[in-house]
Protein backbone atom coordinates (compact mmCIF):
# COMPACT_ATOMS: atom_id res chain seq x y z
CA UNK A 1 0.00 0.00 0.00
CA UNK A 2 1.45 3.35 -0.91
CA UNK A 3 1.36 6.43 1.23
CA UNK A 4 -0.06 8.48 -1.59
CA UNK A 5 -3.57 7.04 -1.21
CA UNK A 6 -5.84 7.48 1.78
CA UNK A 7 -8.35 4.97 0.42
CA UNK A 8 -7.82 1.96 -1.82
CA UNK A 9 -10.36 -0.58 -2.90
CA UNK A 10 -9.59 -3.84 -4.61
CA UNK A 11 -12.06 -6.06 -6.45
CA UNK A 12 -15.03 -5.22 -4.33
CA UNK A 13 -18.11 -7.39 -4.85
CA UNK A 14 -21.43 -6.72 -3.14
CA UNK A 15 -24.53 -8.79 -3.79
CA UNK A 16 -28.14 -8.24 -2.86
CA UNK A 17 -30.76 -10.93 -3.52
CA UNK A 18 -30.94 -11.11 -7.31
CA UNK A 19 -28.63 -8.12 -7.87
CA UNK A 20 -24.88 -7.80 -8.06
CA UNK A 21 -24.63 -4.15 -7.03
CA UNK A 22 -20.84 -4.02 -7.15
CA UNK A 23 -18.80 -6.20 -9.44
CA UNK A 24 -15.04 -6.10 -8.81
CA UNK A 25 -14.81 -2.39 -8.22
CA UNK A 26 -11.39 -0.77 -7.91
CA UNK A 27 -10.88 2.72 -6.56
CA UNK A 28 -7.90 4.79 -5.44
CA UNK A 29 -8.37 8.07 -3.63
CA UNK A 30 -5.32 10.30 -3.15
CA UNK A 31 -4.67 11.90 0.19
CA UNK A 32 -5.96 15.47 0.21
CA UNK A 33 -7.79 15.40 -3.10
CA UNK A 34 -11.43 15.85 -4.11
CA UNK A 35 -12.52 12.68 -5.81
CA UNK A 36 -15.84 12.47 -7.64
CA UNK A 37 -17.79 9.33 -8.39
CA UNK A 38 -20.11 9.47 -11.39
CA UNK A 39 -22.49 6.87 -12.78
CA UNK A 40 -26.08 6.28 -13.79
CA UNK A 41 -28.90 5.65 -11.33
CA UNK A 42 -28.39 2.26 -9.80
CA UNK A 43 -24.75 2.02 -10.93
CA UNK A 44 -23.70 1.24 -7.37
CA UNK A 45 -22.33 4.57 -6.10
CA UNK A 46 -24.22 4.73 -2.80
CA UNK A 47 -23.65 1.03 -2.17
CA UNK A 48 -19.92 1.53 -2.63
CA UNK A 49 -19.88 4.34 -0.09
CA UNK A 50 -21.90 2.25 2.34
CA UNK A 51 -19.32 -0.52 2.13
CA UNK A 52 -16.45 1.92 2.68
CA UNK A 53 -18.07 3.44 5.75
CA UNK A 54 -19.15 0.21 7.40
CA UNK A 55 -22.91 0.51 6.82
CA UNK A 56 -22.45 -2.91 5.23
CA UNK A 57 -20.17 -4.72 7.66
CA UNK A 58 -17.11 -6.79 6.91
CA UNK A 59 -18.23 -10.22 5.78
CA UNK A 60 -21.20 -8.95 3.79
CA UNK A 61 -19.00 -8.21 0.76
CA UNK A 62 -15.97 -9.64 -1.00
CA UNK A 63 -12.76 -7.78 -1.81
CA UNK A 64 -10.56 -5.45 0.18
CA UNK A 65 -10.84 -1.91 1.48
CA UNK A 66 -7.75 -0.11 2.76
CA UNK A 67 -8.04 3.13 4.73
CA UNK A 68 -4.84 4.96 5.61
CA UNK A 69 -2.85 1.95 4.47
CA UNK A 70 -4.60 -0.62 6.65
CA UNK A 71 -7.26 -3.11 5.62
CA UNK A 72 -10.57 -2.23 7.27
CA UNK A 73 -12.74 -4.57 9.29
CA UNK A 74 -15.66 -2.33 10.18
CA UNK A 75 -18.75 -3.76 11.76
CA UNK A 76 -20.71 -0.52 11.76
CA UNK A 77 -20.47 3.17 10.89
CA UNK A 78 -19.22 3.83 14.43
CA UNK A 79 -16.05 1.88 13.66
CA UNK A 80 -15.24 3.93 10.58
CA UNK A 81 -16.02 7.21 12.36
CA UNK A 82 -13.46 6.41 15.01
CA UNK A 83 -10.81 6.21 12.30
CA UNK A 84 -11.70 9.55 10.74
CA UNK A 85 -14.21 8.60 8.07
CA UNK A 86 -17.56 10.37 7.79
CA UNK A 87 -20.40 9.86 5.36
CA UNK A 88 -23.21 12.24 4.52
CA UNK A 89 -25.97 10.21 2.95
CA UNK A 90 -28.15 11.00 -0.04
CA UNK A 91 -31.08 11.44 2.35
CA UNK A 92 -30.17 13.58 5.34
CA UNK A 93 -30.02 11.80 8.65
CA UNK A 94 -30.39 14.42 11.38
CA UNK A 95 -32.88 14.14 14.22
CA UNK A 96 -35.33 16.88 13.27
CA UNK A 97 -36.63 17.58 16.78
CA UNK A 98 -33.25 17.94 18.44
CA UNK A 99 -31.13 21.08 18.51
CA UNK A 100 -28.14 21.72 16.29
CA UNK A 101 -25.59 21.02 19.01
CA UNK A 102 -27.34 17.85 20.14
CA UNK A 103 -27.24 16.63 16.57
CA UNK A 104 -23.56 17.49 16.25
CA UNK A 105 -22.56 15.57 19.36
CA UNK A 106 -25.26 12.89 19.33
CA UNK A 107 -23.73 9.53 20.09
CA UNK A 108 -20.30 10.85 20.99
CA UNK A 109 -20.82 12.97 24.09
CA UNK A 110 -18.66 12.22 27.07
CA UNK A 111 -20.00 12.26 30.60
CA UNK A 112 -18.11 13.08 33.76
CA UNK A 113 -19.47 11.21 36.75
CA UNK A 114 -22.60 10.66 34.71
CA UNK A 115 -23.05 14.36 33.97
CA UNK A 116 -22.90 15.94 30.53
CA UNK A 117 -21.27 19.35 30.36
CA UNK A 118 -23.81 20.96 28.01
CA UNK A 119 -22.13 24.37 28.10
CA UNK A 120 -18.94 22.93 26.75
CA UNK A 121 -20.75 21.21 23.88
CA UNK A 122 -22.67 24.34 22.99
CA UNK A 123 -19.44 26.35 22.87
CA UNK A 124 -17.65 23.71 20.83
CA UNK A 125 -20.51 23.33 18.38
CA UNK A 126 -20.39 27.09 17.79
CA UNK A 127 -16.80 26.67 16.66
CA UNK A 128 -17.72 23.93 14.16
CA UNK A 129 -20.67 25.94 12.89
CA UNK A 130 -18.33 28.84 12.17
CA UNK A 131 -16.08 26.52 10.19
CA UNK A 132 -18.96 25.55 7.91
CA UNK A 133 -20.17 29.15 7.68
CA UNK A 134 -23.35 28.86 9.76
CA UNK A 135 -24.35 31.69 12.08
CA UNK A 136 -27.24 29.89 13.69
CA UNK A 137 -27.69 29.61 17.45
CA UNK A 138 -26.57 26.04 18.37
CA UNK A 139 -29.79 25.64 20.36
CA UNK A 140 -31.96 26.02 17.24
CA UNK A 141 -34.15 23.01 16.52
CA UNK A 142 -32.96 21.36 13.31
CA UNK A 143 -36.40 21.08 11.68
CA UNK A 144 -36.52 24.89 11.54
CA UNK A 145 -33.56 24.92 9.15
CA UNK A 146 -33.77 24.55 5.38
CA UNK A 147 -32.12 21.57 3.66
CA UNK A 148 -29.02 23.57 2.79
CA UNK A 149 -28.35 24.47 6.39
CA UNK A 150 -29.19 20.98 7.63
CA UNK A 151 -26.54 19.68 5.30
CA UNK A 152 -24.03 22.08 6.84
CA UNK A 153 -24.96 20.81 10.31
CA UNK A 154 -24.16 17.29 9.13
CA UNK A 155 -20.81 18.49 7.92
CA UNK A 156 -20.18 20.26 11.24
CA UNK A 157 -20.96 16.93 12.89
CA UNK A 158 -18.34 15.26 10.68
CA UNK A 159 -15.79 17.92 11.64
CA UNK A 160 -16.49 17.34 15.33
CA UNK A 161 -15.33 13.78 14.81
CA UNK A 162 -11.98 14.91 13.38
CA UNK A 163 -12.83 13.75 9.88
CA UNK A 164 -10.00 12.89 7.49
CA UNK A 165 -12.09 11.47 4.67
CA UNK A 166 -15.48 13.05 4.05
CA UNK A 167 -17.93 11.20 1.81
CA UNK A 168 -20.80 13.23 0.35
CA UNK A 169 -23.57 11.43 -1.54
CA UNK A 170 -25.22 13.94 -3.92
CA UNK A 171 -24.73 16.86 -1.53
CA UNK A 172 -26.14 19.51 -3.86
CA UNK A 173 -29.14 17.68 -5.30
CA UNK A 174 -31.66 19.59 -3.20
CA UNK A 175 -29.74 22.85 -2.85
CA UNK A 176 -30.27 26.02 -4.85
CA UNK A 177 -27.48 27.58 -6.90
CA UNK A 178 -26.24 29.82 -4.11
CA UNK A 179 -26.22 27.09 -1.51
CA UNK A 180 -24.53 24.70 -3.93
CA UNK A 181 -21.78 27.20 -4.70
CA UNK A 182 -21.17 27.72 -0.98
CA UNK A 183 -21.02 24.01 -0.31
CA UNK A 184 -18.52 23.43 -3.12
CA UNK A 185 -16.42 26.31 -1.80
CA UNK A 186 -16.46 24.65 1.62
CA UNK A 187 -15.23 21.36 0.16
CA UNK A 188 -12.40 23.28 -1.53
CA UNK A 189 -11.57 24.96 1.78
CA UNK A 190 -11.43 21.53 3.45
CA UNK A 191 -9.00 20.46 0.77
CA UNK A 192 -6.73 23.37 1.72
CA UNK A 193 -6.95 22.13 5.32
CA UNK A 194 -5.88 18.65 4.23
CA UNK A 195 -9.27 16.90 4.40
CA UNK A 196 -9.94 14.45 1.57
CA UNK A 197 -13.44 14.39 0.04
CA UNK A 198 -15.29 11.86 -2.06
CA UNK A 199 -18.30 13.39 -3.76
CA UNK A 200 -21.03 11.58 -5.66
CA UNK A 201 -22.90 13.85 -8.05
CA UNK A 202 -25.09 13.89 -11.14
CA UNK A 203 -24.24 17.54 -11.72
CA UNK A 204 -21.31 17.14 -14.04
CA UNK A 205 -20.54 20.87 -14.21
CA UNK A 206 -19.99 20.88 -10.45
CA UNK A 207 -17.85 17.77 -10.69
CA UNK A 208 -15.58 19.41 -13.24
CA UNK A 209 -15.42 22.54 -11.13
CA UNK A 210 -14.04 20.96 -7.95
CA UNK A 211 -12.81 17.42 -8.58
CA UNK A 212 -9.17 16.44 -9.01
CA UNK A 213 -10.02 12.89 -10.01
CA UNK A 214 -13.23 11.36 -11.38
CA UNK A 215 -14.00 7.65 -11.18
CA UNK A 216 -16.85 6.39 -13.32
CA UNK A 217 -18.96 3.40 -12.42
CA UNK A 218 -21.33 1.58 -14.74
CA UNK A 219 -23.45 -1.45 -13.80
CA UNK A 220 -21.42 -2.05 -10.67
CA UNK A 221 -18.07 -1.98 -12.47
CA UNK A 222 -15.38 0.68 -12.28
CA UNK A 223 -15.01 1.84 -15.88
CA UNK A 224 -12.39 4.57 -15.75
CA UNK A 225 -10.55 7.03 -13.55
CA UNK A 226 -9.64 10.44 -14.93
CA UNK A 227 -7.22 13.09 -13.81
CA UNK A 228 -9.39 16.14 -14.43
CA UNK A 229 -6.61 18.59 -15.33
CA UNK A 230 -4.15 16.32 -17.06
CA UNK A 231 -6.79 14.58 -19.16
CA UNK A 232 -8.71 17.84 -19.85
CA UNK A 233 -11.84 15.98 -18.89
CA UNK A 234 -15.20 17.11 -20.36
CA UNK A 235 -18.84 16.39 -19.56
CA UNK A 236 -19.09 14.48 -22.85
CA UNK A 237 -16.32 12.09 -21.85
CA UNK A 238 -17.92 11.46 -18.47
CA UNK A 239 -21.32 10.83 -20.04
CA UNK A 240 -19.89 8.45 -22.58
CA UNK A 241 -18.29 6.31 -19.89
CA UNK A 242 -21.39 6.52 -17.71
CA UNK A 243 -23.87 5.30 -20.30
CA UNK A 244 -21.53 3.38 -22.59
CA UNK A 245 -22.62 5.30 -25.69
CA UNK A 246 -22.69 8.80 -27.10
CA UNK A 247 -25.58 10.94 -26.05
CA UNK A 248 -26.28 13.43 -28.78
CA UNK A 249 -29.64 15.07 -28.20
CA UNK A 250 -29.93 16.07 -24.60
CA UNK A 251 -33.09 17.99 -25.42
CA UNK A 252 -35.03 16.27 -28.17
CA UNK A 253 -36.77 18.51 -30.72
CA UNK A 254 -40.52 18.93 -30.80
CA UNK A 255 -42.72 21.09 -32.97
CA UNK A 256 -45.55 22.18 -30.71
CA UNK A 257 -49.14 21.84 -31.87
CA UNK A 258 -51.08 24.07 -29.54
CA UNK A 259 -54.80 23.90 -28.93
CA UNK A 260 -57.23 25.87 -26.78
CA UNK A 261 -56.51 27.06 -23.29
CA UNK A 262 -57.05 24.10 -20.93
CA UNK A 263 -56.31 25.87 -17.71
CA UNK A 264 -56.37 29.45 -16.62
CA UNK A 265 -55.50 30.80 -13.20
CA UNK A 266 -56.53 34.32 -12.21
CA UNK A 267 -55.19 36.42 -9.34
CA UNK A 268 -53.99 33.50 -7.28
CA UNK A 269 -52.75 34.51 -3.84
CA UNK A 270 -51.47 32.31 -1.03
CA UNK A 271 -50.55 33.40 2.48
CA UNK A 272 -47.69 32.07 4.56
CA UNK A 273 -48.78 29.12 6.75
CA UNK A 274 -47.49 30.78 9.95
CA UNK A 275 -47.37 34.51 9.20
CA UNK A 276 -50.82 35.16 7.81
CA UNK A 277 -50.05 38.59 6.40
CA UNK A 278 -47.12 37.47 4.24
CA UNK A 279 -48.01 36.49 0.69
CA UNK A 280 -45.93 33.61 -0.64
CA UNK A 281 -47.85 33.78 -3.91
CA UNK A 282 -49.05 37.22 -4.91
CA UNK A 283 -51.89 37.74 -7.46
CA UNK A 284 -50.48 35.33 -10.01
CA UNK A 285 -52.29 34.83 -13.31
CA UNK A 286 -51.30 32.47 -16.10
CA UNK A 287 -52.75 30.18 -18.74
CA UNK A 288 -51.84 26.81 -20.22
CA UNK A 289 -52.79 25.50 -23.65
CA UNK A 290 -53.50 22.00 -24.89
CA UNK A 291 -50.30 20.37 -26.11
CA UNK A 292 -48.12 22.92 -24.38
CA UNK A 293 -45.11 22.54 -22.10
CA UNK A 294 -44.88 25.45 -19.72
CA UNK A 295 -41.94 26.10 -17.42
CA UNK A 296 -41.84 28.13 -14.23
CA UNK A 297 -38.40 29.48 -13.47
CA UNK A 298 -37.05 31.63 -10.69
CA UNK A 299 -34.80 31.47 -7.66
CA UNK A 300 -35.46 29.14 -4.73
CA UNK A 301 -38.23 30.61 -2.62
CA UNK A 302 -39.84 32.33 -5.61
CA UNK A 303 -43.11 30.64 -4.73
CA UNK A 304 -43.34 28.22 -7.64
CA UNK A 305 -43.95 25.10 -5.58
CA UNK A 306 -46.38 26.94 -3.29
CA UNK A 307 -48.29 28.18 -6.33
CA UNK A 308 -48.67 24.76 -7.89
CA UNK A 309 -49.29 22.90 -4.67
CA UNK A 310 -52.06 25.25 -3.65
CA UNK A 311 -53.70 25.04 -7.06
CA UNK A 312 -53.48 21.27 -6.77
CA UNK A 313 -55.48 21.43 -3.58
CA UNK A 314 -52.72 20.51 -1.18
CA UNK A 315 -53.20 22.61 1.86
CA UNK A 316 -50.14 24.74 1.51
CA UNK A 317 -50.41 28.15 3.12
CA UNK A 318 -53.11 29.37 5.43
CA UNK A 319 -55.54 30.25 2.70
CA UNK A 320 -55.59 30.91 -0.99
CA UNK A 321 -57.59 33.30 -3.10
CA UNK A 322 -58.17 33.42 -6.81
CA UNK A 323 -59.88 31.48 -9.54
CA UNK A 324 -59.05 28.40 -11.58
CA UNK A 325 -60.73 27.66 -14.90
CA UNK A 326 -60.42 24.22 -16.46
CA UNK A 327 -61.50 24.09 -20.10
CA UNK A 328 -63.17 27.46 -19.60
CA UNK A 329 -65.22 26.34 -16.62
CA UNK A 330 -64.64 27.78 -13.19
CA UNK A 331 -63.50 24.91 -10.99
CA UNK A 332 -63.26 24.73 -7.23
CA UNK A 333 -60.33 22.60 -6.14
CA UNK A 334 -60.43 22.10 -2.40
CA UNK A 335 -58.52 18.87 -2.11
CA UNK A 336 -56.16 16.64 -4.02
CA UNK A 337 -59.14 14.49 -4.89
CA UNK A 338 -60.87 17.45 -6.54
CA UNK A 339 -57.68 18.12 -8.47
CA UNK A 340 -57.47 14.57 -9.77
CA UNK A 341 -61.16 14.72 -10.78
CA UNK A 342 -60.44 17.96 -12.63
CA UNK A 343 -57.75 16.15 -14.65
CA UNK A 344 -54.64 17.28 -12.82
CA UNK A 345 -51.63 15.20 -11.79
CA UNK A 346 -48.66 16.20 -9.67
CA UNK A 347 -45.11 14.95 -9.20
CA UNK A 348 -43.68 16.43 -6.04
CA UNK A 349 -40.16 17.82 -5.66
CA UNK A 350 -39.79 16.51 -2.15
CA UNK A 351 -37.27 13.73 -2.37
CA UNK A 352 -37.78 12.34 1.10
CA UNK A 353 -41.48 12.67 1.03
CA UNK A 354 -42.27 11.55 -2.48
CA UNK A 355 -45.41 9.87 -1.32
CA UNK A 356 -43.88 6.51 -2.06
CA UNK A 357 -44.62 3.66 0.27
CA UNK A 358 -41.13 2.28 0.58
CA UNK A 359 -42.11 -0.96 2.26
CA UNK A 360 -44.41 -1.85 -0.62
CA UNK A 361 -43.31 -3.27 -3.93
CA UNK A 362 -42.69 -1.28 -7.07
CA UNK A 363 -45.80 -2.34 -8.98
CA UNK A 364 -48.11 -1.38 -6.11
CA UNK A 365 -46.57 2.08 -5.94
CA UNK A 366 -46.84 2.61 -9.68
CA UNK A 367 -50.48 1.55 -9.87
CA UNK A 368 -51.63 3.22 -6.65
CA UNK A 369 -53.11 6.25 -8.43
CA UNK A 370 -54.75 4.19 -11.17
CA UNK A 371 -56.50 1.37 -9.34
CA UNK A 372 -59.76 1.98 -11.15
CA UNK A 373 -58.05 1.35 -14.45
CA UNK A 374 -56.85 -2.12 -13.53
CA UNK A 375 -59.71 -3.30 -11.33
CA UNK A 376 -63.01 -4.98 -12.02
CA UNK A 377 -65.75 -4.93 -9.39
CA UNK A 378 -63.22 -3.52 -6.95
CA UNK A 379 -60.71 -6.33 -7.42
CA UNK A 380 -57.28 -5.51 -8.80
CA UNK A 381 -56.28 -7.57 -11.83
CA UNK A 382 -52.75 -8.44 -10.73
CA UNK A 383 -51.71 -9.62 -14.17
CA UNK A 384 -52.55 -6.19 -15.61
CA UNK A 385 -50.86 -4.50 -12.71
CA UNK A 386 -47.64 -6.35 -13.46
CA UNK A 387 -47.88 -5.69 -17.21
CA UNK A 388 -48.34 -1.97 -16.67
CA UNK A 389 -45.49 -1.78 -14.18
CA UNK A 390 -43.25 -3.76 -16.54
CA UNK A 391 -43.95 -1.26 -19.29
CA UNK A 392 -42.73 1.64 -17.13
CA UNK A 393 -39.77 -0.35 -15.91
CA UNK A 394 -38.67 -0.64 -19.52
CA UNK A 395 -39.57 2.88 -20.66
CA UNK A 396 -37.83 4.59 -17.77
CA UNK A 397 -35.18 1.94 -17.29
CA UNK A 398 -35.97 1.38 -13.64
CA UNK A 399 -33.08 -0.70 -12.45
CA UNK A 400 -34.42 -3.71 -10.56
CA UNK A 401 -34.61 -7.46 -11.03
CA UNK A 402 -38.39 -7.40 -10.66
CA UNK A 403 -41.35 -5.07 -10.18
CA UNK A 404 -42.15 -7.22 -7.14
CA UNK A 405 -39.11 -5.79 -5.34
CA UNK A 406 -39.63 -3.49 -2.41
CA UNK A 407 -39.31 0.14 -3.44
CA UNK A 408 -36.96 0.66 -0.51
CA UNK A 409 -34.33 -1.44 -2.29
CA UNK A 410 -34.13 0.89 -5.27
CA UNK A 411 -31.39 3.48 -5.64
CA UNK A 412 -32.41 7.12 -5.04
CA UNK A 413 -32.81 8.01 -8.71
CA UNK A 414 -34.78 4.86 -9.41
CA UNK A 415 -37.24 5.69 -6.64
CA UNK A 416 -37.80 9.02 -8.38
CA UNK A 417 -38.54 7.10 -11.59
CA UNK A 418 -41.26 5.15 -9.78
CA UNK A 419 -42.92 8.44 -8.82
CA UNK A 420 -42.84 9.59 -12.43
CA UNK A 421 -44.23 6.22 -13.59
CA UNK A 422 -47.12 6.46 -11.18
CA UNK A 423 -48.16 9.79 -12.63
CA UNK A 424 -47.76 8.58 -16.20
CA UNK A 425 -50.00 5.62 -15.48
CA UNK A 426 -52.64 7.85 -13.91
CA UNK A 427 -52.57 9.73 -17.23
CA UNK A 428 -54.09 13.10 -16.25
CA UNK A 429 -54.74 15.84 -18.84
CA UNK A 430 -52.53 18.34 -17.06
CA UNK A 431 -49.23 17.18 -15.65
CA UNK A 432 -47.59 19.31 -13.01
CA UNK A 433 -44.02 18.18 -12.51
CA UNK A 434 -41.91 19.77 -9.81
CA UNK A 435 -38.18 19.19 -10.42
CA UNK A 436 -38.92 15.95 -12.29
CA UNK A 437 -35.29 15.07 -12.99
CA UNK A 438 -33.78 15.76 -9.59
CA UNK A 439 -31.25 13.05 -8.77
CA UNK A 440 -31.76 11.45 -12.17
CA UNK A 441 -28.73 10.67 -14.31
CA UNK A 442 -28.09 12.38 -17.64
CA UNK A 443 -29.04 9.37 -19.75
CA UNK A 444 -32.42 8.87 -18.14
CA UNK A 445 -33.06 12.60 -18.08
CA UNK A 446 -33.35 12.64 -21.84
CA UNK A 447 -35.71 9.68 -21.64
CA UNK A 448 -37.93 11.67 -19.31
CA UNK A 449 -37.73 14.62 -21.70
CA UNK A 450 -38.83 12.32 -24.53
CA UNK A 451 -41.78 11.17 -22.45
CA UNK A 452 -42.85 14.74 -21.63
CA UNK A 453 -42.58 15.64 -25.31
CA UNK A 454 -44.71 12.64 -26.21
CA UNK A 455 -47.35 13.71 -23.72
CA UNK A 456 -47.51 17.14 -25.34
CA UNK A 457 -47.74 15.58 -28.80
CA UNK A 458 -50.67 13.48 -27.59
CA UNK A 459 -52.47 16.67 -26.62
CA UNK A 460 -51.67 16.64 -22.92
CA UNK A 461 -50.36 19.74 -21.19
CA UNK A 462 -47.35 19.97 -18.92
CA UNK A 463 -46.37 22.47 -16.27
CA UNK A 464 -42.76 22.06 -15.27
CA UNK A 465 -41.01 23.64 -12.33
CA UNK A 466 -37.29 23.46 -12.92
CA UNK A 467 -34.27 24.94 -11.22
CA UNK A 468 -32.08 23.88 -14.08
CA UNK A 469 -32.33 26.65 -16.62
CA UNK A 470 -30.94 24.61 -19.54
CA UNK A 471 -33.74 22.11 -18.90
CA UNK A 472 -36.45 24.78 -18.95
CA UNK A 473 -34.92 26.41 -22.03
CA UNK A 474 -34.59 23.08 -23.81
CA UNK A 475 -38.10 21.86 -23.10
CA UNK A 476 -40.62 24.64 -22.64
CA UNK A 477 -42.78 26.38 -25.24
CA UNK A 478 -43.23 29.25 -22.85
CA UNK A 479 -41.49 30.26 -19.64
CA UNK A 480 -42.96 32.22 -16.75
CA UNK A 481 -40.36 33.84 -14.54
CA UNK A 482 -41.25 34.21 -10.88
CA UNK A 483 -39.64 35.89 -7.91
CA UNK A 484 -40.89 36.71 -4.42
CA UNK A 485 -44.28 35.22 -5.11
CA UNK A 486 -44.95 37.27 -8.23
CA UNK A 487 -44.80 36.59 -11.94
CA UNK A 488 -42.11 38.91 -13.25
CA UNK A 489 -42.55 38.19 -16.91
CA UNK A 490 -43.06 35.64 -19.65
CA UNK A 491 -40.80 34.50 -22.47
CA UNK A 492 -41.52 32.46 -25.59
CA UNK A 493 -39.24 29.50 -26.38
CA UNK A 494 -37.41 31.28 -29.19
CA UNK A 495 -36.65 34.46 -27.26
CA UNK A 496 -35.65 32.93 -23.92
CA UNK A 497 -32.03 32.86 -22.75
CA UNK A 498 -30.47 32.21 -19.35
CA UNK A 499 -29.47 35.88 -19.03
CA UNK A 500 -32.97 37.13 -19.84
CA UNK A 501 -34.55 34.81 -17.30
CA UNK A 502 -32.16 35.86 -14.57
CA UNK A 503 -32.54 39.55 -15.34
CA UNK A 504 -36.32 39.22 -15.45
CA UNK A 505 -36.37 37.49 -12.06
CA UNK A 506 -34.47 40.38 -10.53
CA UNK A 507 -35.93 43.45 -12.20
CA UNK A 508 -39.05 42.18 -13.97
N1 LIG B 1 -30.87 -3.06 0.19
C1 LIG B 1 -30.92 -3.42 -1.09
N2 LIG B 1 -31.55 -4.53 -1.49
C2 LIG B 1 -31.58 -4.91 -2.79
N3 LIG B 1 -31.01 -4.21 -3.78
C3 LIG B 1 -30.36 -3.08 -3.46
C4 LIG B 1 -30.29 -2.62 -2.10
N4 LIG B 1 -29.57 -1.46 -2.09
C5 LIG B 1 -29.23 -1.21 -3.37
N5 LIG B 1 -29.70 -2.18 -4.20
C6 LIG B 1 -29.50 -2.25 -5.66
O1 LIG B 1 -28.13 -2.07 -5.94
C7 LIG B 1 -27.95 -1.31 -7.11
C8 LIG B 1 -27.07 -0.10 -6.82
O2 LIG B 1 -27.79 0.84 -6.03
P1 LIG B 1 -27.14 2.19 -5.50
O3 LIG B 1 -28.09 2.78 -4.54
O4 LIG B 1 -25.76 1.94 -5.04
O5 LIG B 1 -27.11 3.08 -6.84
P2 LIG B 1 -26.59 4.58 -7.06
O6 LIG B 1 -25.46 4.49 -8.04
O7 LIG B 1 -26.32 5.23 -5.78
O8 LIG B 1 -27.83 5.27 -7.83
P3 LIG B 1 -28.54 6.73 -7.68
O9 LIG B 1 -27.78 7.63 -8.61
O10 LIG B 1 -29.92 6.50 -8.21
O11 LIG B 1 -28.51 7.12 -6.27
C9 LIG B 1 -29.34 -0.96 -7.61
O12 LIG B 1 -29.70 -1.87 -8.60
C10 LIG B 1 -30.21 -1.13 -6.38
O13 LIG B 1 -31.52 -1.49 -6.73
MG1 LIG C 1 -27.30 6.78 -4.74
What value does the Rg take, in angstroms?
24 Å
Ranges with pLDDT <50 over ≥5 residues?
none
Number of strands: 24
What is the level 1 CATH name of the largest domain?
A: Alpha Beta
Which fold name fills CATH's third level, the topology of the largest domain? Answer: Rossmann fold
CATH superfamily (homologous) name of the largest domain = P-loop containing nucleotide triphosphate hydrolases
Give a written overview of the molecule:
With 508 residues, this protein is α/β, with parallel strands linked by helices. The protein folds into three domains: 5-243, P-loop containing nucleotide triphosphate hydrolases (Rossmann fold, 3-Layer(aba) Sandwich); 249-343 and 428-508, Rossmann fold (3-Layer(aba) Sandwich), CATH 3.40.50.300; 354-427, no CATH class. Helices cover 32% and strands 27% of the residues. The protein has 16 helices and 24 strands. The chain has helices spanning 45-52, 77-82, 100-105, 118-131, 147-160, 177-192, 204-210, 235-243, 304-311, 336-341, 362-367, 382-395, 412-426, 442-457, 469-475, 498-507, and strands spanning 5-16, 19-30, 34-38, 62-67, 70-71, 85-88, 111-112, 115-116, 165-169, 196-200, 213-218, 221-227, 261-271, 279-289, 293-297, 320-326, 329-330, 344-347, 375-376, 379-380, 430-434, 461-465, 478-483, 486-492. The strands form six sheets. A six-stranded mixed β-sheet has the order 6-9-10-3-11-12, sandwiched between helices. The longest helix has 16 residues, at 177-192. The radius of gyration is 24 Å and the shape is globular. The model has no long low-confidence stretch (mean pLDDT 90). Bound molecules: adenosine-5'-triphosphate and magnesium ion. Adenosine-5'-triphosphate (ATP) binds at residues 16, 19, 21, 39, 41-47, 90, 399-400, 409-414. The site of adenosine-5'-triphosphate has 20 residues, from strand 2, helix 1 and helix 13.
Amino acid sequence: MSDEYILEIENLIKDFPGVRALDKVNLKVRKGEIHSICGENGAGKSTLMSVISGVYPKGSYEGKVFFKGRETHYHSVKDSEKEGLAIIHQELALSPYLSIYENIFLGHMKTRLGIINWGKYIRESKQYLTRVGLNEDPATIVSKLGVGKQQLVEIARALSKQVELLILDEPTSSLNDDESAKLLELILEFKRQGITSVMISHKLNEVLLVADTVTIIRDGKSISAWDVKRDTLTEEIIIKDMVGRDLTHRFPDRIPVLGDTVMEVRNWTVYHPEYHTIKVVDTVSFYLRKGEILAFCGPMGAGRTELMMSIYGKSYGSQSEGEVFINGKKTEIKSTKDAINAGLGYVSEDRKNLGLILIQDIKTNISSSSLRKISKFGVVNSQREIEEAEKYREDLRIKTPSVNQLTRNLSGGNQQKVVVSRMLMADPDIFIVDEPTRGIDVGTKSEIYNILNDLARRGKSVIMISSELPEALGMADRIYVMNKGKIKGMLMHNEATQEKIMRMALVG
